Amino acid sequence: MKRLATICLVLVLAAVLSLPAAASVPGELLIWTDGERAPVLTEVAKSFVGEYGITVRIQELPFGDIRDNLAIVAPTGEGPDIIIGAHDWLGQLVTDGLIEPIDIEDPSLFLSSGLDAFTWGGQYYGIPYAIESIGLFYNKDLVGEDGVKSFEELIEISEGLQAQGIYGLVLPQPDPYHTFPFFSILGGYVFGMDDQGVLDPLDVGLANEGGVAGFEFFQELMDAGIIARATPYDTMMSLFKEGQAATMMTGPWAFGDVRAAGVNYGFTQIPSYKGQYGKPFLGAQGFMVSSFSENKMLANIFLNEFVATTETMLAIYEGDPRPTAFLPAAEIINEDPDMRGVMEAASTAVPMPAIPAMNSVWTAWSDAIELVINQQSTPKAAIENAVELIVQTIKDSM
Amino acid sequence: MGKLIKIIFLGVLNVVFIWTALFLYSSQAYWVLLLLLLGAALVNFVFISEKAYPYRYLLPATFFMVLLVVYPIVYTVYISLTNYGTGNILSKEQAVAQLQERSILDTEAGNYAYQAYRDGQGQLHFVFTSPGGELFLGYAGGLTPVQEGDPRLVELEGFTELTRADLVRATNEISALSFSLDEGRQLRMRNINSFGVYRQQYEYYPERDELLDLETGTTYRSVQGYFQAPDGTRLTPGFREVIGFQNFRKLFTNPQVTGPFLRVFVWTIQWALLSVGCTFAVGLFLALLLNDPHLRFRRFYRSVLILPYAVPAFISALIWRGLFHTELGVINQILKATIGSGVPWLQDPVWAKVALVILNLWLGFPYMMIVCLGALQSINSEMYEAAVVDGASTWQQFYHITLPLLMVSVAPLLIASFSFNFNNFSVIYLLTRGRPPIVNAQTPAGHTDILISYTYRLAFESGRGVDYGLASAVTLVIFLITGAITFLNFRFTGALEEVRKNV
C-alpha cells in the first residue's frame, strides 16, 4: 500500500510539471489552410517571422472541413486567426458571427467580381486569391480554331456533326450549377437584390419570363439531339475525350483530364443566344479573418503586406493553377491561353449567391431539370413548381 | 508481478485523471471536473478493494457504454430542444459581446496619422495629427490638444519612438487602446498607418435583456435566439437558446413534412423488408449449394461469392450507378441487344426502386451466405439421416429441419439487418439520392426517399442553412420508430427467447 502511494505521488508530480501551455496565443498567428496552399503559406510565414519576429503557425485541414470546424472550434477560443475558404460560405459564416470584415488596403489590385463575391452588407470579408467559373471547352478538330461564339452557330455546326453521331454539346446533368447559364441567358436569376444591395431570399427569379424561355431553349436543344441527354459528369467527360462531342460546358478543373486525353481543345466563355451571353456562376476562394481571433489587426497586416503580393499570388497559382483574382499576377498568368479563357468566361459570370437560403434551392431546382431531361414535365411547369417549393421552404424556416 | 502491473496501470490512470482535472480546472469546467473526480475515486476504490473485484471488468464496459451510447443520446435530446444551427451558433454572452464591440467608423472625420513612443516604464505615448492638422497628445486613454513646440512634445523626444516593425509587434497592445475624442466618439487604431474615429453602435442592458441601437434609438428585445426590433428585424449573429419542443412541433405541423410522411414511411418498410428478404433468400440458396459435399471447387466458388462483400459499398454503389445508366449503361446495352429495348432504371419510380433492391442484393447476399454457411454447419447431420430413414423428401428436410434450426441463430441477425436497412442512408444516397423527383411535388421528397434520406434534406437543406436542432429532433423520432419496430420484431418472432433457450 505504501509503495502504491509512492508511485502515485511520483507520477502526479511528473504530470503537474508537464502541463501544456495555454492553447490560444495572442501575438502569434494561426492559419487554417488546405494542403494545396499549405507549402506556399509556410514560405510566406517564414518571411513574416524574418521581418517582424512574429510566429505564424500553419495548420492543414481538408478544404471542405474548414467551415464546419470553424463553427465548432472558434467559439471555444481555440480557433485560428485566418482561414482560407470559398466565397459561398460567407453568408453562413457572417450570420453565425464567425468572421470579421477585412480592411483591404488597395482594392483596385483585385478583379472586381472577385471582390464582389467576398462582399457582404457593403463590407469586404475576404481577400480573394482564386476565381473560377464554367466556360466552354471546344474540340478544334470538330468546330475549328476559333471555337463557337453563339448558340446559333453551335446549332448550325451540330447539324453537320449529327450525321456522324457526334453531339454538339455535353454538360453534366442533372446539375443546376452547370445548367444555370441557360436560365440566366435570357434574364433568369436565383435571388434578386433588394434596394440596399442585399440578396432577397424570397425573390427567386428562376421561373421569370427569361428563366422559362432559357430553360425551354435547353429542352429544344436536347430534343433536337444537340445536347446529349442525362449525362453524368464522367459520361460527359468520356464523350468529349473520345471526340463524340464537339463542345463541353464545364470548368477549369477539367483541364487536366482533357489535356491527358490529347484532345486538340480550346476554352472560352459560354456562347451567346439572341445576342446575350449566358452568365455562369462565379466562385471565388480567399482568406478570411476569424471573429474570435486575438490578433485581428495583425492578421490584417499579414494579409495586406504578405499575401496580397504578386509573389505570393503567383506561388499560390504555381501550387494549384486556378485563375487569380489579383490583377498584377493575372497579367503574368494570362499568357497561358487556358487561363485567359477562364478569365474571359469569368468576365460574364455572377457570384454564386452566398446567402444560407441557397441551401434549399439546389435540390428542388435539380429535380426540375431532371423532370425535363426525363421528359416527364414541361420546363415551365417544372421550374414554376420548383420555385414555389423553394420559396415555401425558405418561408417556413424564417 | 501481477500486482506490480496493477499498480503501474493504476498509477498511469491517475496521471491521466489528474492531468485532465488540472486542465478542466484551468478552463473552469467545474461540473465536468466533479464528475471526473468522482469517477477517479470509483476507479481507485474498485482496483484497490478486493471486494469490488468483478467491477474491474464491468467498470470499463460501463464507462464506454456511457461515453459512446448514453452521452450521444442525451446530447441529441438536448440539441433537439435548442435552436442550434446556422445563425445560432454562439452563446448569448458571445453574441452580446460581439454586438457591443461593433462600432461605426466615422468616415467624414477622416484618418488620424500617429507616432508612438515608449517611455522608460514601458508606457505608450501617442502624437496624433488630425486631417485638419491639429495635434493631440494621447496617453492612458486621454487626449490633450497641443500646439507645435509644446514642452510635452519636446519631452517625448527623450522616449523611444516606435519604428514600423515595432508597431507591428505591438499591434495587439495598440489596437486594444481607445482615446475618448468627445461625447460618444473614440479614436481607435484603424490600420497600421492610422487611427480612425469610431462610435459604439449597440449598448446592452442586462437587467432588461435589451439591446439599444445608439444611432437610431431602436430597442432590440431578445426573442428566440435573436435580438429583434419591434418591426421584426433581427440582428446577426443570433445565439443558441433552449426553445422547448418547437422543433418537434415544426416537424409534426409542417405540411412539407407530414404530407409525404406516410408514402415515405411505407416505402421505407418495403425497402427494408425487400432488402432483408432478397439477400436472405439468395444467401441461403447459395449456402445450401456450397454446403453440398458433392459440389466440386467449393472453396473457389465460396471465395468468388464473397467478393462483393470485400469491395467497399461506396465503390460498388457508384459502379452500379454507371451500369444502370439509361443510355450508356451496360445493363441497358445488353437489354437492347437481346430484347430490343432498355429500361428507364433511374427515371421511372418503380424501376428506380427495383434498381435499389438489386444493388442492395448485390451488396448484402455474401453476408447472409456466410452467416447461413456457419449456421448450417451446426445442424446435426444425424437428423437428416433419420429423416431419410423416415422417407422425407429433400423439400421436407429443408422445410422441417434446416429452416427452423437455421432460424434459431439467424433470426436475430435478420432483425438487425432490417433495422440497418431501415436507416440505410448511403445506398439510397449514392444510387438515386431519393429520386426520381415527383411531378408537381408539393414537398421536396422524391420517389425513392426513405425516412432518413428525406429528413436529411429537411435538416440540411433548410432555408436558413443547416438546422442541427431540427435534425436532432428528426433523429429522435426515427430512433423511436426503429426502436419500436425492432422491439415488435423481437416480440413477434421470439428470436431472443429462442437464443436464450439454446444457451
Write the CATH fold name of the largest domain in chain A: D-Maltodextrin-Binding Protein, domain 2
The mean pLDDT of chain B is 87
Helix content of chain A: 40-55%
Class by helix and strand content of chain B?
alpha+beta
The count of helical stretches of chain A stands at: 17
Low-pLDDT stretches of chain B are none
Taking all residues together, what is the mean pLDDT of chain A? 89
Total of domains of chain B: 3
Please compute the radius of gyration of chain B using only Cα atoms: 36 Å
What percent of residues of chain B adopt helix (DSSP H or I)?
A: 55-70%
Q: Which segments of chain A are poorly predicted (pLDDT under 50) over 5 or more consecutive residues?
A: 9-24
CATH class type of the largest domain in chain A? Alpha Beta
| Structural class assignment of chain A | alpha/beta
Query: Between the first and last Cα atoms of chain B, what is the distance in angstroms?
Result: 37 Å
Shape of chain B: elongated
Helix count from the secondary structure assignment of chain B: 20
- CATH A-level architecture of the largest domain in chain B: Orthogonal Bundle
